[in-house]
Design a protein that fits this description.
It contains nine helices and five strands. It is α/β, with parallel strands linked by helices. The chain binds adenosine-5'-diphosphate.
Length: 191
C-alpha cells in the first residue's frame, strides 16, 4: 500500500493537491476536515462538539479525532493506499496513525510537507472564505489556526524527519507546478 500524509499549514493547498493525487494514483482520500464539515452539516453528536472547536480555530480533541479515524480506516478500501489530508495534526495523532496502520500490516511511506509563507497563507484563506463561505476562513480564525498549527502541528515535522519520511515541497507557484513536484517525489518513493 502507498500511504502518504500531506502536511502543511491551513491554506497550504493540502486539499487541492490531494484531489490531483487521488486522480493520478488512485489513492483513497481521507480528509478529517471534510469529514468533520459533513458531521457538522448533519448535526451529528460529533459534529455538534466539533463545531465548537472549529469555529474558534482550535483543534478537535485528539481522543475524538483518533476514534473517528480508526472507524473510517476500518471501513475504507485498502487496495492501493491512503492519502491522509489534515491528519495527523498533533504528535499524539501521528503516533496513533502509525499504530493503526501497523495493525493493518502497513505504514506511512512519506509525509509531504507543503511549504508556504505566512502572508500568502492568510491571503489564500481569506480568498477561499470569500468564495466558499467556509465559516472558519476569516481573518480572526485564520490567525488562531496558524498559531495552533505552529504550536501543535509543526512538531510533527521532526517526527517524520526522524523516521526519514519528510519530503519538503515548495507550495507556491501555480497548482500544476506544485503537483509536478509532488509527482516527482511520489514516483521516486513508489519505484
Ligand atoms: P485547514 O487545513 O485549512 O485548517 P481542514 O479542513 O483540514 O482545513 O481543517 C479545518 C478544521 O477542522 C481545523 O481548524 C480543526 O479545527 C479541525 N480538524 C481537522 N482535522 C483535524 C485533526 N486531525 N485534529 C483536530 N482537529 C482537526
Amino acid at each position: 500500500m502507498v500511504n502518504i500524509v500531506i502536511f502543511g499549514a491551513p491554506g497550504s493547498g493540502k486539499g487541492t493537491q490531494s484531489d490531483l493525487i487521488i486522480k493520478k494514483y488512485g489513492l483513497h482520500h481521507i480528509s478529517t476536515g471534510d469529514i468533520l464539515r459533513e458531521e457538522i452539516a448533519n448535526q451529528s453528536e460529533l459534529g455538534i462538539i466539533a463545531e465548537r472547536f472549529i469555529s474558534k480555530g482550535q483543534l478537535v480533541p485528539d481522543e475524538l479525532i483518533i476514534r473517528m479515524l480508526a472507524e473510517i480506516l476500518d471501513k475504507a478500501p485498502t487496495e492501493k493506499g491512503f492519502i491522509f489530508d489534515g491528519f495527523p495534526r498533533t504528535l499524539e495523532q501521528g503516533e496513533a496513525l502509525d499504530k493503526l496502520l501497523k495493525e493493518k500490516g502497513t505504514c506511512i511511506l512519506a509525509a509531504l510537507n507543503l511549504e508556504v509563507e505566512e502572508s500568502e497563507l492568510i491571503e489564500r484563506i481569506l480568498k477561499r472564505g470569500a468564495l466558499s463561505g467556509r465559516k472558519d476562513d476569516n481573518l480572526e480564525t485564520a490567525h488562531a489556526r496558524l498559531k495552533v498549527y505552529y504550536s501543535q502541528t509543526e512538531p510533527l515535522k521532526e517526527f517524520y524527519k526522524k523516521q526519514g519520511k519528510k519530503i519538503n515541497i515548495k507550495g507556491t507557484g501555480n497548482i500544476e507546478d506544485i503537483f509536478e513536484r509532488i509527482c516527482q517525489s511520489i514516483d521516486r518513493i513508489i519505484k
